[in-house]
Here is the input.
Amino acid sequence: VVSTQSTGITRYTEWLSGDREAEKEPTFWDESTQQLRSAKFALAPCPLVNDSLNKTVNLTLRKYSRSRYRAVMRQLKERKSEITTLRNICIHAEGSMENEALDIIFKTAHNLGEGLQRRIRDTATELYGVDPTQIELLRTLVVDLPRQLQNANPSEYPGLVFLYFENYVHLVKAELQLLKVPGIIQNGLGSYNYPSTEELFSNNPVLRTILEESTRNPDLYSFVSSFPELFGHRTLKDKTFTFVGAGFPLTGIVLHIETGASINLIDYDITAVENARRFLALTEKLGITAPGAFKVIHADARDVVYIPAEQPVHGLRMLDGTFCSPLCPLKPELKGKVVVPTDILDLASALPADITAKVIAENAAFVPWIRKRNVRGMSEVLYERFELDDAKFRMIGEITPPQCAVNGATPAHLITGLTATWNVNSCQLYMNMSNFYSRMDFLDSIRNRPFYDNIKLGIFQVRDEEKGLWDRRIREFYKKPRNSPCYLSCTIEHSVA
Here is the structure.
């Protein structure tokens, strides 16, 4: 039955992209409703799909021993074709589930009209107490209120209320560890690694002094903000995140709530774009998200160039359709691409590995940081695993489900933190190495900076200046592989006095 439904989805996708007038829309027989339905709904939530998907996910969440895990993975490698089919089924089923959950939310909003805001507030207060948080208001909009209305009137609110809200909240919070922990202390096997921030500061005391003085000195605050690999991202509210994949934009909304950052959402599917815009209009009206914090862009990820928000680039089409001068530092074939300001690029787990690699290599050469939501171990039956093979980027660290740490699917030295036990995804952080030489040169020139006289006394003098301000591991961190090209000019001069 699943194979038939998957074929239905495939035929429907081909029909959408072809000449729709040349043939009839593909359909399938829905056993639960006893009627023919568009193949668009072939994997929509129903007892068969829900039970099958639930069993598959539960298999991936088990804590296998290392020997059992290796034996299972050997068998899976012999079933590549079946695994590819299963991944496609799971991705389509996930999308159908999200669409059905959004339909219930939109019907709730339509039926309650102007009373929605008061009903959300009253329900959240009843469930979570006075002054509910933005996360609690979001949970009420997505889960609690739709479920209440569905229980009271099932025929008016058919379908499946969203099941995985808590998964998203926990995953987004766990992924923030990758940005908040200094990159230089994350990879345990790196020749540059410091086991802790305390050891980093003890061996490079100027860093401790700069951090302590940064709350009182704007120049030092800019310095700290410009070197998150040494200090961690102390704040993210001034950053712009770009997510490839709009769909049901819970990840972006939770991230915005947690950080205050601006969010871009990109999707090639116009229905996903329209749904995201409609849902975000609701969250803005309810005070869950800030006005103007989100931009939803209808585009293929491969037709976009991702550029740090503060870095000017010429010869590229901006979001408003205008062009700058033709003096473009990018490859000629990238001229005319749509530019999306991006400080941190997030790539979804459902994005195919070949497209992910192309986006990183050709479209994101200017992005300082990339996070790739990924899978390891048994979760590879749900999504395709991505392996980075790009000399411009270094893998910094990873957050992973506990079961992947237990069975060895995730190398221990890469683990920066853990997600919840019920999450299937890992997330990996990559740092752009293209301006590493410039960054080290800037650190070496610190004595010539205006702020030097303000920090050179006291703890700063613990280190003999004749021996240099930085120890070997700092220099080791900023060494690039010889085959690593240099695409970026250093922009630190513009951000640090």
